[in-house]
């Protein structure tokens, strides 16, 4: 929660980390977008997630799901599946194993092997290229945008695919890097109409690129010596980010 909140503040968003059943609906009413991250699960928190997603759906507000560890345990897979099926997220962002596990759970008839979607704890055991087909199937089945992140990141609405290649391998050594990225996606998606698929997929692509560029700049900083210092230097990079930085460094491939 700490690094997610600090990153949101650094990019100009205003975060609130909320999980009490008694107030989640009020906060969704106030918020521009909802992010549900299932990284920490308990029965009361799951009830709060359902209440928050239902409120976002009722109000027509964008909401983003991070299915952390889906495929690792039945509780995580079932919780993510229930949220997707019941409340139709605007965006699902996960690593390859998480996306494949969700696709296997939701998309009936999808041809996946028993090991597909297997997790190493909450880390992926698959490549993003391997997960692209299931990601497209999941997006089409759920009428949402799916973002699968890895060596290359993919954004798909089930038919078109945008590829983003910014980033650095050191991100795999930083706890909550993926969770933080999902928070940035939610902030970007909140800036427009969540029913406009073009806005949603382009917002996700830009968020992926900016997050990846921040990692690249942090690694290039001579003060950065490893995952711990890169984590902090990433926060510093957002303050000196501008349109020119994005234009010079973005690696976004739109469909031809």
CATH superfamily: Ribokinase
Low-confidence stretches: none
Domain count, please report it. Answer: 1
Largest sheet: 7 strands, mixed
Briefly note the CATH topology name.
Answer: UDP-N-acetylmuramoyl-L-alanine:D-glutamate ligase
Mean pLDDT: 93
Structural classification: alpha/beta
In percent, how much strand structure appears in the residues? 5-15%
CATH top-level class:
Alpha Beta
Task: Tell me which CATH architecture applies here.
Answer: 3-Layer(aba) Sandwich
Overall spatial form:
globular
What's the total number of strands? Answer: 9
Give me the Rg, rounded: 17 Å
Tally of helical runs: 10
Secondary-structure element series:
HHEHEHEHEEHEEEHHHHE
The separation of the N and C termini measures 38 Å
Helix content: 40-55%
Strand order of the largest sheet: 1-2-3-6-7-8-9
Pfam family, one: HK
InterPro entries: Hyethyz_kinase, Ribokinase-like
GO molecular function: ATP binding; hydroxyethylthiazole kinase activity; magnesium ion binding
EC number: 2.7.1.50
